[in-house]
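[Automated response] Your request has been received and processed.

Submitted sequence:
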Amino acid sequence: MPQLVINNFTRGQLDHDLNGRFELPFYFNGFEVCRNFISNYKGNVKFRTGMEYAAKTKNNQEAVIMEFRFNTEQSYLLEFTEGILRFYTYDANGNFGYVVDDENNIIELNTGITLDQAKKLQKAQNADAMYLTAPGMMPRVLKRTSATSFSIENANPTGMNYDTDGYPSAVAFYGGRLWFGGFANKPLTVRGSEVAEYGNFTVPGSNIDDDDPLSLTLSEITDPIEWLMGGKNNLYVGNPEGICLINGGGYDVPITATEVNADLANKEGASSAAPTQKDSQVFYVSNDKRKVYMFDYDLLTEKFLSNDLNMLSQEVTRGRLKKIYYKRDDNNIIYCLLEDGKAIALLYKSSESINGWFPLETSGNIIDICTVTRPDGKDDLFLEVLRNGVYYIEKLANEVEFTGFYETENFKNDPKKEYYNRLIAEQLKQCNYLDGSTEFSALQNNQITFDGVDTITAQNAVFNQNHVGHYVVYKTSSGAEYGYFEVTEYISETQVKVRVASNGYNPSVWNYWYISFNQITGLTDFEGQQVMVVADGGYLNTFTVTEGTLNFDREMTSCVVGYSYEGLLKTFNLGFSANGKNLQTVRKRIAEFILRFVYSAGVNIGTDINDMFVVQYFSPQGFMDLPPLPMDGDEKRQVADTSSEEKYIFLTQDLPLPMNLTMVQYNIEFGS
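Generated structure:
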């Protein structure tokens, strides 16, 4: 019985008409269908995280979102609606929300920028000033004057004649200069400011110095300039005919007012979508909006090359590409927005020959996306999503880094993994695999002392009469700390009578703990909707929200409420060549699956999408004391499969739980 293994999932979704190319490696590294899963450079396949609610747009208007990055510690999300700009940022604790003034009023600016203009905005930022351009709009400069105050004004530098040239549509910083391009009346002209003097574009008539302003018109193209981008050694100019390079006369020669050259580097045209940069590579959207090209300098040929990254995955862009952003984090994925309201993720690394596409879907239309730098230097991906007629701003939830058994403090004294189990349970509470989701937690930071008999005393006022019947639960930090106490009597705001409901407790004094609950209110945005609930890290059930409220028949310390989405993988037809025979077309059955997981729960597998086998059903029962562990290692499952000539593996995740798969081994029998 052959034992076949898939342990590299980096190719993502491939085109359906590749289903005969079983002799090539990508056939087994990719899928015919891949939905709501992503991969990484390690080759794993992971259920994508959920989309957390952040805010609603002003007056429920369609908006355009983008980043204003002052520095690593302070970045902002900009929300452009018709004529108005709002700001969001992170506080000292990493929480994301509106920028407000001293009286807690949301800060707004009147921009004079229409929504249609905002959809076409291009930006270039230097420190606290961001220049904005769009076709038919006088350039603006948005300035940060303090952490909570901004101003916006027209950018009308000296030497710029908008009456003659028209307004520019493209802008960039490069080589110490501010550049404008794609003027309405001179669409092939690019103008650069004086070095370090961004308000001076006056080109001298004589005695020209290297740092003086300059102007040039591209001669090798006829279509208008779409965008500008400052690269490592060149100013890139994108237009529908290709990419032009502006430099000082060579690949690594700096631009000066006396030495400047422009060449058409390739003929793979670009759309107006602003490109994104990863390392020294530039990624841009093709003129037909169906492809992403990677543009980079090739040292062997000493030429710039554009690589078509959709060569084997053209079907994923049927919705036509609209925007593209690189997200700096542990996965290093490029996210693309499609005009049909869906998104796709691109995993790419040329040195490892990794190029995979991963379609993402949600119960709503994605209107816009952008990345914003977190205080830790990594990026968050924000999405504007239209759900049930409401424009929401949501954030792709962060993946949880689970603790390995041998990383715990007490692994030598924990043969039954009780401490480890509690620690993993605590980390499961941080997982979010629901869209449009809201998280609820009853976590307290208030020192409590248990007298060892029946009384808990808090350092600060926290208790009330309604807490009787609920539970005080320790938030463990190493797994060795645990305590689960039922409140039996209210004494005062700082003291309650309790019953020890866990198998002992440790220690008697603790700072971080939960007060449990069994009702959630304020869910007006979910009114009448079916939502999923994850309680204390385990899937609870599906509920319908009534009068903005959910009631439960169990206690919980934290939960996530939101809309479900399903992950789906379907392989190509299984088989290979042996002794000159194509076993792809002979009858075969799968006798057994061996799946290797990393901190995963749920998951279904099978050879028939309508007859799947549950790998692990993960419920939250008993979670407050000692919960079940997620799968971390090999899981063997025998399946009642039938023989057929066409054989596929289906894998789904329909529960809002983490799934990280590193290997699928399938034992296959040939013949009737």
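Summary generated for your ticket: The chain has a mean pLDDT of 93. The first strand starts at residue 3 and ends at 6.
If you did not submit this request, please reply to this message.
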